[in-house]
Predict the structure.
Amino acid sequence: MQEVCLAIPLACLAGAVVSGLFGWKIGRVASHLVTILGVAVAFVLSVSVVLPWTVTGHTFNGSVYTWLTAGRLSLPVGFLIDPLSALMMTVVTFVSLMVHIYSIGYMRDDPGYQRFFSYISLFTFAMLMLVMANNFLQLFFGWEAVGLVSYLLIGFWHTKESAIYASLKAFLVNRVGDFGFVLGIAAIYTHFGSLDYATVFTMAPAKAASMVHMVPGTSWHLMTLICLLLFVGAMGKSAQMPLHVWLPDSMEGPTPISALIHAATMVTAGIFMVARMSPLFELSPAARSVVLVIGALTGLLMAFVAVVQNDIKRVIAYSTLSQLGYMTAALGVSAYAASIFHLVTHAFFKALLFLSAGSVIVAMHHEQDVRRMGGLRRYMPVTFICTWVGSLALAGIPPFSGFFSKDMILDAVHSAHITGAPFAYWVLTAAVFVTALYTFRMLFLVFYGEPRMDKHTREHLHESPWVITVPLVLLAIPAAVAGMLLIKPLLFGHFFGNSIVVSPGDNVLSEIGRRYHGVGPFILNAFRSPPIYLAAAGIASAWYLYIRAPRLPDIISRRFHGLYTVLTNKYGFDEFNDFVFAGGARALGRALWMVGDVQIIDGLMVGGTARLVGWVSARMRRLQSGFIYHYAFAIIAGLFLLMTFFLHV
Amino acid sequence: MTFEQIVFYFFSGVLVLAAVVVVTVRNPVKAALALVLAFFSAAGLWILLEAEFLAIVLVLVYVGAVMVLFLFVVMMLDINIAELREGFGDYLPIGGIVAALMVVEMAIILGPRRFGLAKVPVPQAHGATFSNTRMLGDLLYTTYVYPFEIAAAILLVAIIAAIALTMRRRPETKYQNPAEQVRVQRSDRLRIIRMPSEKKG
Amino acid sequence: MNFMPALPLIFLFGSTCAILLIGLYVGERRTSVVYVLSQVALITTVALVIRDAQAAPIVALHGMFVRDRLADLLDIAICLLVVAVFVYSRRYLSDRDMYRTEYFVLALFGVVGMMVINSAAHFLSLYLGLELMALSLYAMVAFQRDSARATEAAMKYFVLGALASGMLLYGMSMLYGVTGSLSIAKVASTISAMPPGNIVLVFGLVFVIVGLLFKIGAVPFHMWIPDVYDGAPTVVTLYIGTAPKVAALALILRLLVGGLQALSPSWREMLVIAAFLSMGVGNVVAISQTNLKRMLAYSAIAHMGFALLGLAAGGREGYADALFYLLIYSVMSLGAFGLVALLSGPGREIEYIDDLKGLSQRNPWIAFLMLLLMFAMAGVPPTAGFYAKLAVIQAAVDAHLIWLAVAAVLFSVVGAYYYLRVVKVMYFDAPEDDRPFVLPLDGKFLFGLNGLSMLLLTPWIGTIIAFCHSAIQGLP
């Protein structure tokens, strides 16, 4: 098993290295072939070896290489292969494979073709290292590595000013999250003395009641502190408010990247991490309440913003934020399995939506504004149908996958007793309506109505090539049916086994499981609760506003001008950050630079030392007079001094 | 004071004086001659140590060959004495002080306290039949053959160096090459030119 | 008498004499024969050393000669360095009418001298080996006899070298006076049997140390180095800057570690002073040099300070680290001077740092290799030079010479300045003339190997250090 585990990430790394270092030599076709081969190997191994193996109850937990030993701290590279990581590996490699194939078409004319393939393979490697880790350090390595590749890919078109800004923003905002994450890991190491998952999880219950004194006079539950710090990391990576600001801007990157990294995999790393840390989070209800409320708020507020966006990718990006909010909320009520379930279905349908959007963008010659699209259904039938599938799944219409996972989360939040659960339930239910509204707003604006693009573009409209449509179809299938097939094993079976720990008192899923009697009754049951009607109402409103009465949205936006402005300004997070944090940091930096750096360090210490050394050097150089008797005298004098110094008669 | 001691102190005194003269005297010829004197004194000391062979070799080689050669060179080259001695006075005080201090230090350490008769016994005198030369020869060609060979190599290097650094073919120097002379052909020396016979005018 | 252990030495000596004679017969126009024969002789010597390499020391030739791991390692290193020196210098010599038999013969005699030092078990063989090496070097420095600078440099080197040799010899005679023996092993055993604190021994030691420090070029006995390095023809500087450094370390190891280990508290203190001064003076004065060879000369002084750091730290670890440092340094120095020799084409002499201006535009590959060498000299990881510095500084820390280790780090920061200045000149300054540098193929290949070795050696650093350790283990 160890060999297979090694082969999976290394296949991707090998592809990345080959196309990254030798891409200029082996050419475009060889570059994409080698990376696709690497990822395909990883996918086939994950789905055919690792997944069945873990389903039959095996787990693997072992180190393969000791990277460093310092004192009693040993830092190994190791793998923990259990159902949770196996599932993640399968999803990651599958979506990555689809995106690889899709990129052949999407990136066809890009000069950075090989570099692009190298990056996405490298990303897959990093993501696999993250999910397969059996210790915190490797988790952190994967965490940072995916962040790095994300940064590189957002700024992939590095001649574009906005792309550079966006990549920098993503990097800096993630720093904030990582800071919390590192502190969390440090706290774990300080109090547990180990970075190994198994050790820490075993010791955790014994430390459940311990308190730490951070600031004199206050005391914290150790577990709450650790969980909150770790969650700050998850907030950064999974873009939860208020650290969500980087994700919409990350759409500056190529669309396949948005699908792979900023929808399906990397942004779910935070969700995965919290699920992985379930033994810790279960010990701190307070931390989980925070998780729940932040998730629910992100779910609703970001959905509102999606309604007013005009850039097709930004709509989907805000939708991603909102869906991540759902997952986070599910984590808050201990429904880790439901969260992962939603993660999986979301990976499929959101990747599908992004890639469809990419297909549209290619057809439109890189036009992304939905106001200049319309009527595309006649030109791009495959993309059109795939977008329908994705939208229905996102809106939560049965029997598409999103319905099951989203309903499950709502059910779980409804059944939970934790602080904040009733509030979260109403917030998330409201978000269902908004989700359906913005999803179908986008669908209707793009594919229905009159074509609004210019004549030239319109004449060249045609369906995308097969390398683009095949991944769409391949993703549409799981987006449609994954929910039905997976709900039973993932949620009510024993798929996750011991990889997710839920304390019996908070186990909402087992409560729900007692009422579960199969897919059919589950769908029927849904008709007895509001979400499905809200979703239908959302679709109907979208139809009315954007097909039946297309002038109405303008009127509404003028009538509710204040609200509209708030939404288009995305609640002012960016302005606040720019002014307070970025501005403050710049002011502080300038002060330190002018006084500390220029005057004290450069002027006095660096410059002063250099001048001193130069001065001494010029003086000492004169000793080298060139006269032999000076040299001889130096030797004699040296001898004399040595003699005098050492001969204490 | 025994006779041996008198001889020792005499030669030692002359040796030191001669050495001082070598470095202080203005005229290089005089310095060279003073060095000859120093060698003679040293040879005398060695005889006192029953190292007769070494003493004779010192006189033969250094005085007979090296110093005479040296004198020739010094006398043939017209060395500007004034230039050589420029700055001597400037450096004398500090050089002298350091030298004096070192002598004092050395005297303290190497004095009779550590090398006196109490510490180092008098070497045994050998009989009249004892051949120092034979002894040296025996050792040199058996136990010390390795250093002896290296010394030979050093001399070889010295010869090569001397030749490589000084021997050069100057275009203006005239010299004969017997091999070339013997190998000479008629055609090298004689050229027959056909000339039309002159008409009587 | 068993001559077999000395076979490589005897072979090299014999073939050098043969080459001298063959050189006379083939004449001045076919010096290439001599060149090839010299290379063959050196490589055969290496092969002979390797063939009989033995772990246990063998003492032969009436206790004058010892063959052990240390001697083998140093013999191989020196022979290979000189092979490389010959490759680098071939075209330089032929461009300047110096391509003559005597150059190779003198260099080979120098190697013989160094091998004698490496294997010395007796003060006499040690001293004579030293003189054989030194005499060859003096002659080589003066080899360009029409150059006034070279002659002056040779003169200085000769006079000062004689002074230092005299002191070494005087110190040895003091040791002989106290111990009654010239055999290194006997001296060692006699001294360790004596009560500590014998002042005459320390007195002799001071003189010996002065002679040794002169040979290795440590401050304050370093004054000859810049003048000789600068004045000598570049290929001779290349020779002096590599193999004799290794031999000088052998001299120190044989004499101080092998013979005077019992006095190590005293000589370690002296070496601490010399190490500190060498690192300081070498690095600081190198900054104000504009002449490339002089800069490298001061850099050599500084590097010797680092090597002394390992020796001063003491213990087998420290000696092995010093040995390792010196081996790595000799390879770096070989590359740096080798480049100067290679670039100095006909009618062009690379003298000043500014002569390298814009090298990266004219010969990017060569410039890159030089960059590697400069980084290695500055001790930038992950080059071999970094590991060498790390090893000696580690040794100093282990010996509780914390202040010296801190000083070493600070001085190496100072030193980074002038190495990086070379890089800056190569990469950021515009070339002053656009005559291309045409390098001979063999020299180019070897230089490539030489420069890349700074990176490629990295995975084998552990092995090399282990080699040095096993070499030091053989010392008594």
